[in-house]
Amino acid sequence: MFYDVHCHLDMLSEKELKEALQKAEQNNISQIISCSTSFDSNARNLALAKMFPEIKAAIGLYPLEAMELNDEELKKAFSFFKSKIKEETSIAVGEVGLDFKFAKKAEQQKKQIEIFRKFIELSNETGKPLIIHSRFAQKQVLETLEAEKAEKAVLHSFVDSERLMKRAAGNGYFVSVGLAILENNQIQKDITRFPLENLLFETDSPFRFNNEQAFPHKLLDIVSKVAELKKIPIEEIGRAQEISFKKLFL
Q: What is the dihedral angle through the alpha carbons of 68, 71, 75, 80, rounded to the nearest 10 degrees?
């Protein structure tokens, strides 16, 4: 069995979702985590997780969305998160983290870090792992996780710095690799040297890759590439991923 640990199934139409789940089942993908980015996204993912046993919801706010909330709105938001994260269909805290690409001012970055700390606290309190966004802020994400003693984390698409990847693995965190591994030589080199026991897989569907919309069944392309790079059977990767997924999420 295989697991897609980072999708946005809430963005799909009813028809697209039905087709996506059928193809995922045909390709032996048993669990798909749909990450939330906004309040509407949270509501949609929670509903989908109740309707489809193969979908699990990650509860959170995209860092750029969270940054726009005032103190009262943030208080209400975390009250909502604390109530919903306890539900059986909520498997993780995400998509949360830092995004400094569009937050260049010091006060914006400071606010993002403060909110991220609250999400880490929520993760540690509930035992639900973090699914983390870290665009233009990988070092800062690791520093914050370490300072707050984060216990469980998946670093979404955190694959372009071998040094930081090894630092993440040293902390017991997981790195998820997506479709970029199919063509990016540097990512291929980094993954070849990265420990299998700290590696998970994602499609980030339905976002597009090379002008083609991604869906969970594309996960098999990623797994096959990792098997080729590491020169090990795809079945071995499947067993390792199942152990890691259950250790982290179940």
A: -20
pTM for the predicted model, two decimal places: 0.97
**CA-to-CA dists, residue 151 to 35, 56, 121, 168, 180, angstroms:** 19, 20, 10, 12, 27
Task: Quote the CA–CA distance of 90 and 107 in Å, as a whole number.
Answer: 32
Q: Please, what is the average pLDDT of the chain?
A: 96
Report CA 183 to chain centroid distance, whole Å: 21
Specify the CATH number for the domain of residue 30.
3.20.20.140
pLDDT of 160 reads 82
Query: How confident is residue 86, by pLDDT bands cut at 50, 70 and 90?
Result: confident
Q: pLDDT exceeding 90 applies to what percent of the chain?
A: 97
The domain in which residue 97 lies consists of 2-182+191-208+215-223+234-249
Q: Which two tokens stand for residue 114?
A: 């403060």
Give the chain's domain count. 1
Q: Mean pLDDT, to the nearest integer, of 131-159?
A: 97
**What is 31-72 written as a DSSP string?**
EEEEE--SHHHHHHHHHHHHH-TTEEEEE---HHHHHT--HH
> Distance of CA 216 to CAs 16, 130, 168, Å?
12, 20, 25
Task: Tokens 């690409």: give the residue.
Answer: 101
